[in-house]
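Customer escalation, tier 2.

The customer says the design service returned an amino acid string that "doesn't look like it belongs to this structure." They asked us to rerun it and document both sides in this ticket. The original structure tokens are below, unchanged.
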């Protein structure tokens, strides 16, 4: 039985480089390119695997880039199922400007996915002999996949007794929430888009999250706030954690690392406070790695002890 299953409809090979300075119209001499597996659910699965969790990554991929993605996942010894599509899996790329530390991220839309291709994801979930304990639905939807794709998966998961976890944006986020999920992890920008409210103050963040819970759209809302930390809201409690001071090599995948560590901890029986602290620790640890390197177990454990120590004080 798989404890945690992630689904990534729009994965990528993430290419990252560094340059001294971004200057328009000139040829810019770049560092050697680094290539990592990418896409929300894939990143979540990579982190859960590093933390020692039992996880399976299911993803749609095609073409030469899809083959490279599979090779990169095999190199990490990640349990994964590739559902083949005709289109070419995308490459995303990021540029870190060494003179300022700024990071520029370029995200492509992804290939067009036919109906019979995206329906394989739903069929795969329905055909599992033993349902997973958690289903993590994460990332953007490529062209061709309907906005209610995650909602359909959530419906199947609920019927099979699986807890659903959601990390998306825009219409896909709103549609899946209307179906109801166990945990949702929006950024502040995504929560603002969902509610159509400016949400300037912390009490407004909390109230917006509570509204999602009271409407039955989620049982827990984990709001990631970048350098302001994170907020976890349930029907009867609100937890707040500031960001830990961290030198930033790359911010790519910090939110995915947060979500992965939370789900990993919850699956192990952790209470919501412990799981929340692991999420913040993993997000902080992910900042230490270049490209889409994500977090390492030793860094997560060290950061978790720092957060727990501060909380006890």
């Amino acid at each position: 039985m798989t404890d945690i299953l992630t689904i990534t409809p729009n994965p990528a090979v993430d290419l990252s480089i560094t340059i001294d300075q971004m200057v328009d119209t000139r040829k810019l001499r770049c560092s050697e390119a680094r290539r990592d597996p990418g896409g929300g659910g894939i990143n979540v699965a990579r982190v859960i695997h590093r933390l020692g969790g039992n996880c399976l990554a299911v993803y749609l991929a095609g073409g030469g880039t899809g083959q490279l993605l599979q090779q990169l996942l095999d190199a990490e010894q990640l349990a994964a199922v590739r559902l083949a599509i005709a289109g070419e899996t995308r490459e995303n790329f990021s540029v870190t400007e060494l003179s300022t530390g700024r990071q520029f991220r370029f995200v492509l839309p992804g290939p067009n996915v036919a109906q019979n291709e995206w329906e394989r994801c739903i069929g795969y979930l329905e055909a599992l002999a033993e349902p997973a304990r958690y289903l993590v639905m994460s990332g953007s939807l490529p062209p061709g996949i309907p906005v209610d794709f995650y909602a359909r998966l959530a419906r199947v998961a609920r019927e099979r007794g699986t807890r659903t976890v959601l990390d998306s944006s825009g219409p896909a986020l709103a549609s899946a929430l209307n179906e109801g999920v166990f945990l949702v992890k929006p950024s502040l920008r995504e929560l603002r888009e969902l509610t159509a409210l400016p949400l300037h103050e912390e009490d407004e963040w909390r109230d917006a999250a509570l509204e999602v819970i009271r409407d039955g759209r989620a049982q827990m809302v984990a709001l990631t706030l970048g350098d302001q930390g994170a907020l976890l809201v349930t029907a009867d409690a609100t937890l707040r954690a500031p960001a830990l001071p961290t030198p930033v090599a790359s911010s790519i995948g910090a939110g995915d690392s947060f979500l992965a560590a939370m789900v990993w901890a919850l699956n192990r029986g952790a209470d919501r406070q412990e799981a929340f602290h692991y999420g913040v620790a993993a997000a902080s640890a992910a900042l230490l790695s270049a490209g889409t390197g994500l977090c390492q177990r030793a860094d997560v454990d060290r950061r978790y002890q720092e957060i727990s120590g501060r909380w006890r004080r």
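Tier 2 assessment: The sequence is consistent with the input. Residues 297-312 form the longest helix (16 residues). The longest strand covers residues 12-19. Sent an explanation to the customer and offered a walkthrough call.
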